[in-house]
Design goal:
There is one protein chain. The chain has seven helices and no strands. With 154 residues, it is mainly alpha-helical. It has one domain: 434 Repressor (Amino-terminal Domain) (Orthogonal Bundle).
Length: 154
């Protein structure tokens, strides 16, 4: 009976280093193809994105082809040029774990009318409210519900 743990090379086991190299290679190629598809759907040329991100055309091309792994700083610049969330690129590159999906988070990330910084601030506020609510009702002000607006005399 064939061992399902064998790879196509016939080795019975892969070393942890081989597995890590395959994971990094897959993440690098995945982020590259994702960047390319986002760039093409935004109708931005490679040259335009490279200029916006502050990287050379050949370097961006190598990233898109999965030959180079971009740093978090370069990913943030590319995200800004593509008008997508840096977090999305970090997750695709394997730098961050994906958070559970939330319609609020998806809406903030999808809003092209606000800047990346504004998105980050909104999400920080949202997550702080979530943490407060997870802490329980003992943290709430007596007599007020969390959604009760304060009156300002308008």
């Amino acid at each position: 009976m064939a061992n399902s743990d064998t790879d196509s090379g016939g080795d019975a086991q892969s070393s942890p280093g081989d597995l890590a190299a395959r994971v990094v290679s897959t993440a690098t190629s995945d982020i590259g193809s994702f960047i390319r598809s986002q760039r093409e759907s935004a109708q931005v040329s490679l040259r335009q994105l490279a200029q916006t991100a502050g990287v050379s055309n050949p370097y961006l091309s190598q990233i898109e082809r999965g030959l180079r792994k971009p740093s978090a700083e370069v990913l943030a610049s590319i995200a800004k040029g593509l008008r997508v969330s840096s977090e999305v690129l970090y997750v695709r590159a394997g730098l961050l774990e994906e958070r559970p999906h939330s319609p609020v988070v998806d809406a903030v990330h999808g809003d092209e009318s606000i800047t990346e910084r504004q998105k980050q601030v909104l999400l920080e506020i949202y997550y702080s409210f979530r943490r407060e609510n997870d802490a329980g009702p003992e943290d709430e002000t007596p007599g007020r519900t969390p959604m009760t607006p304060t009156t300002t005399g308008e």
